[in-house]
Structures are given as C-alpha cells and as structure tokens.
Amino acid sequence: MKQVMLYCRSGFEKECAGEIQDKATQLEVFGFPRLKSNTGFVLFECYQDGDAEKLIRKIDFNSLIFSRQMFAVVAECQDLPKDDRISPLLADLSDDESMPKCGELRVETPDTNEAKELLKFCRKFTVPLRQAMRGKGLLLKSENPKKPVLHVCFVAPGHCFAGYSYTDNNSKFFMGIPRLKFPADAPSRSTLKLEEAFHVFIPREEWDTRLASGMWAVDLGACPGGWTYQLVKRSMFVHAIDNGMMADSLMETGQVKHHMEDGFKFEPARKNVTWLVCDMVEKPSRVAQLMGEWLIAGWAKEALFNLKLPMKGRYDEVLQDIENLKIFLIQNGVKFRMQAKHLYHDREEITVHVQVLSNISPH
Ligand SMILES: C[S@@+](CC[C@H](N)C(=O)[O-])C[C@H]1O[C@@H](n2cnc3c(N)ncnc32)[C@H](O)[C@@H]1O
C-alpha cells in the first residue's frame, strides 16, 4: 500500500499536492504527488510499502486545507470489463491483507464537470457492489459508522482506485461534500458557504450550545444578507455591517441591526457578541489581522471568515496568513482551536474558523 488518494476542488490540485507533500515530509514519509490539472484529485505516491496507512493515520485530516477527502489506496483497476466490473475489483481487494473490514461503501468520482455522467453510473453501481462486497466479507452485513469507510473512486469509465479511510480521520460526507439545499428565501447563494462552514467546523451535537438562539453575532461585509440569514434562522441577533442594502425580509424579522459603517472600524457597543463572521472582499492578511484583534480584545468567542486567495502563490499566502494569526493570538495569551478549509462552496477563497478556548487578557 503505497498511494494516498486526495480529493480537491478542480483547479486546486497544485495546492492539494503541496500540502500533502509538506505533511508527509514532516512525518518523514518520502514520496511524490501525481497530479493533472483540473482532475479534482491528487495521488501521493510513497516510496515505502505501508506508508499510505501511516499517512492516513498520522496526518490530521482536519489540518488539511485543500483536501476534501483522504484514503489509502489498496487497488487500482483499469479496463474493467463492462459485463463484469465487480469480480476483478473484489479479487484485487480481497487479495490484499492490508484491507480492513469496512462499515460503509462509497462509490465516488472526483468533483469535475466531466465526471457528472460517471456519478450516475456510480450511484447505480453501488447497490450490486455493496451486495457483492458483503458476500466476500469486505463489508459488514450492516452499516457501522465506527468501522473504516470503503471508497471506490472512478476517475474514468472502467478505471477506479479503491481503498479505505478511518472514520475518526476523514470527511464524513460522500465525495467530501456536504449536500445542502439552497433555501428559497435566502437573499444570496453565499448563504450556503456559512451553512457548510457550520457543518464542517462545528460538531452537530454542539450546535444547540454553540449556535444557540438568543446569541449575538456580528456580520462584517453582510450585504445582501446570505450569512446573516443563517444566523437569523438560528434565532440569533445580528449586527450587520456594510454600506450596501440588506434584504428587507431580514430587516423585518427585528433580529438585525444594520450599521452602514466600515467593517475595519466597527466596534460593538456592548461586548456580548459570541459570533464574528466576515465575508469582506479584502486582502487576506488584513482580514486575518482584524479577526485576531477582535479575538484578543475579547469582542467575540468564535470567528468564521473567508480569506480571499491571490492569483499567484495561493498556498503560500494562506499558510503565511494563518501562521501570522496563530502567532498573534499566542503572543497575546489566547488559547484557541483553529481550522481552515477550502469548502465546496468556496471558489477563490478559503474559510477559517477560530474558537477561543481561553483568553488571559481581554481588554
Ligand atoms: C461577498 S459580499 C458579502 C456577501 C454576504 N456574505 C452574503 O452572504 O450576502 C462582500 C461584501 O463586503 C462588503 N465590504 C467590503 N469591504 C467592506 C468594508 N471595509 N466594510 C464593510 N463592508 C465591506 C461589500 O459591500 C459587500 O457587500
């Protein structure tokens, strides 16, 4: 077992590859990434047998920004015959002793326009394949969320990579993408960005306490209100900061105060804010600095914000901005949890979440 499969947004293979290369090197696992632009995946080829298993165990999946899913490849099948794609795949997987017994099967494709047709096939193929895998003992008889996930990823008709991921270190979503429905009454499509961020960064069992009704939030760069909509929907009160127009439907709820001000200068009059969210189109280093200032001052407990990616050196820029923010918080006595992800609804930006755990000196 020498390969790790990583899914990413099409066009971001270089960033995904740079990241896995860095993480592998830190673990003294040597190898190289195989990638092709706009394919939506990267294969990391280790030199030593068993190293793929090491990587999927030791790299914290949540620390990866550009990867949507990560699994160890056990078999690559090419030219699967149309009349029986199942037998060769089963034979390859059951011949390999490193293949653990799995609790769930996901037949997937990388997320590209070309793969859309293939996805239809994957859906149809899942039922008979699951049946056959259960028969062979590769899958448990019933779904088990604690056991590894068996991934079969079709990159072209008749060509797939199969392997497994661990449920405590993978994306729980099919293809690494939460399926969300656009709410018809939301003022903008970017509402889905914040909703996805909640799904990815906040464990579902903590929603009742961390996204609770009655909380106050500040939305910097709020107009027309897609992000505010998500907060209002959770019965929060929102200071919406933007010189633009907020959707009437949101203002009519009575839960929103619109401040036509510069988001870089706004200061909440009462320091009762739990959530700071920010979608201002600005230089990422400036936004990261602003978020740091709010959290250090104790003006918010959790921050969720976008960092717009530059045209060039996208990976280096975000790493630098995130690193600077970490140093800034640490030097000011803030203990925190931070995660950054290139979400499905993000394009030329990534989303960062910071939760303050303790702060020795809120001003
Ligand atoms: C991408 S839009 C936000 C969309 C919003 N999150 C939504 O879901 O509807 C960016 C917004 O940031 C605002 N903006 C940019 N710079 C700003 C600043 N310095 N202060 C306040 N708002 C700013 C713009 O007016 C624009 O409405």
Automatic annotation (TrEMBL):
Domain Ribosomal RNA large subunit methyltransferase M THUMP-like: 84-166
Residue ranges of every copy of the Ribosomal RNA methyltransferase FtsJ domain listed in the record: 188-283
Annotated ranges, domain RlmM ferredoxin-like: 1-71
One Pfam family linked to the record: RLMM_N
Compartment(s): Cytoplasm
Catalytic activity: cytidine(2498) in 23S rRNA + S-adenosyl-L-methionine = 2'-O-methylcytidine(2498) in 23S rRNA + S-adenosyl-L-homocysteine + H(+)
EC numbers for this chain: 2.1.1.186
List of residues binding S-adenosyl-L-methionine: 190, 223-226, 242, 262, 279
UniProt key word Translocase: no
Chief location category: cytoplasm
Superkingdom, natural source: Bacteria
Biological process according to GO: methylation
Active-site residues per Swiss-Prot or TrEMBL entry: 308 (proton acceptor)
Keywords for the protein's UniProt record, in alphabetical order: Cytoplasm, Methyltransferase, rRNA processing, S-adenosyl-L-methionine, Transferase
An example molecular function term from Gene Ontology annotations: methyltransferase activity
Described function: Catalyzes the 2'-O-methylation at nucleotide C2498 in 23S rRNA.
Family: Belongs to the class I-like SAM-binding methyltransferase superfamily. RNA methyltransferase RlmE family. RlmM subfamily.
Quaternary organization: Monomer.
Protein name, entry field: Ribosomal RNA large subunit methyltransferase M
Taxonomic source organism: Vibrio tritonius
Organismal lineage: Bacteria, Pseudomonadati, Pseudomonadota, Gammaproteobacteria, Vibrionales
